[in-house]
Structures are given as C-alpha cells and as structure tokens.
Write a structure and sequence with these properties.
Layout: H1 6-18, E1 39-46, E2 49-55, E3 61-62, E4 64-74, E5 79-80, E6 85-93, E7 98-99, E8 107-108, E9 116-122, E10 131-140, E11 143-151, E12 153-154, E13 163-167, E14 173-180, E15 187-200, E16 203-206, E17 211-217, E18 230-235, E19 240-247, E20 252-260, E21 266-268, E22 282-286
Parallel strand pairs: 3-12
Antiparallel strand pairs: 1-2, 2-4, 4-5, 4-9, 6-7, 6-10, 8-9, 10-11, 13-14, 14-15, 15-16, 15-19, 17-18, 17-20, 18-19, 20-21, 20-22
Length: 287
Amino acid sequence: MKTIKLGLITFIAAIGLSSCSSDGDDSPKNEIDPLAEFNLVTNITANGHSLELYSEEKTGFTTGYNELFVRIKNTADDTYYANPEITWLPVMHMMSMNHSCPISELNITDDYDTVAKGYIVFQMPGNADEFWDITFTYTVAGQEFSVTETIDVTAPSDGKQTVSSFMGSDETRYVLAMVEPTDPEVAVNDIEALLYKMDSMMSFSHVENYSVALDPRMPGMGNHSSPNNEDLTYDAASKSYKGKLSLTMTGYWKLNLKLLNSTGEVLKGEDITEENEASSLYFELEF
Ligand SMILES: [Cu+2]
C-alpha cells in the first residue's frame, strides 16, 4: 500500500511559509495543508462541518481498491478537528436489494492528527437506476454526528478489471481486489491483493491463509507468459496477499488467477492450457 508523503509536503510548505512571513499573521490554522498535493474526491457538508475525502491518485470513486484520506473541517472557523473518531459505511442501493462492500477502519495518520486514512473496495459501479451512498458517523468535540451522501462510483477510465466479486465452489461469496502495482514496470513487480468474504449483505471479513495462484499472459501476443512470477500468499501484518508479478514488456496483460483455500482446494479459477486461454478469475492491466 502507498506510503503517505505527508512529511515531504510539510517540509515544502514550511519553506514556503518561512519566506513570506511579512503578513505578520502567526495563527497556525491553515498554514500547512498536508493534503495539498492530493485530489479532493468529494466534500460533504452537514452539521456545520465539511467532510473532505482525498485520494492520492484518483479524482473520483472507482470500482476496486480506493485508498482515501478524510478530515473534518469546522465551517464556523475553517479549522480541522484533531483526532476525530470516524466510521463509514458505503451502501449500494440496487433494484432488488441493498449491499455494502469491504472497508477498512479509518485511523488517524501518524503524521497529522487531523487526517484519517482508510480504504474502500467497491465491487461494482453505480448506474442510472442503482447508486451508492456513504454514511459517516463521527465524534468531534465530544458530540456524535451522522451524515449520508450519495456518491458516484464508476468503472476505471481505462476499463481494466482490478476487482472481482464471485461465488466460490464452497458456496461462499468472495471479493478479491488488486492493491499493487499501481505503477507497473517492465520488471518483477510486487503484487498485492485483498481478499474478503461476504458474511452478510452489509458485512465483509478478511480471509486468512488462502493463496492466489498467478499466471500473467499477453492475449494479444500468442498468450505468452513470463518467468519468475510468485503466487500470492497471506501476509498477516498487512492482512493482504503478496506475491511477484513479472512483466516482460509493456502492453495489455491479463493476470489469470486461481483462489485456493488453506488446504489447497481450488475455489475459483482455471489453469491456462492450449484449450483454455483465460481463467474466470483475473485482473487486467495495461501500461
Ligand atoms: Cu451492487
């Protein structure tokens, strides 16, 4: 997962400030903007507060893994609350039912007590008749508030699949999402994915100690593979699956996958053979 570059931004901001202190305003508020280099994805106004959601790379919510930074502004004096307690719940309102998606907790970052960080894995986009909203419940200055806002979740602009929601052969519904690489190179790349099972429409939990077999192919070039790939295995520290993805050239790659449970039983996906060019479980990337 991405390392937040807040420290560097602070440093740059500090240099900027020291060189233009002639206005004589020593008030600390708004002098440093730790999220200045990030994209404001949405701004939710309610209860005299402004909830700001930022992304380092994206300009909107997309299907797949969304790393997000959240802070809460008191609109009365334009200051940000320190150490807000925030929970969130995205819900998709479909024609026949409502459901949520995998989320992390929102934890205050080490660098800034006004900035919380977490992620959401949207498993499907909204459409004309079906939409997502997100509810924030938060405590600032000792008081609890809540707000629900409709949000736009779209497929990524390049159309590539980085998340899969599927039923395993064990009759369990899973969500598998690619976290890395975000910047693939002609090299052996680190690959990281999150695996959740759907406990209920509104609740998802991490799946531990499974594995994800990886077979990257270039369908446009005789479906050739690459050497030195490593299957993804569970990393308890990050609660994610990590492996090695070898990309020998630029272009379109299909990352064919198989999900295996802790006893090695295949729950989803197929081997690539002469007769079978692709697995039913896969990610895509193009670079
Ligand atoms: Cu849905």
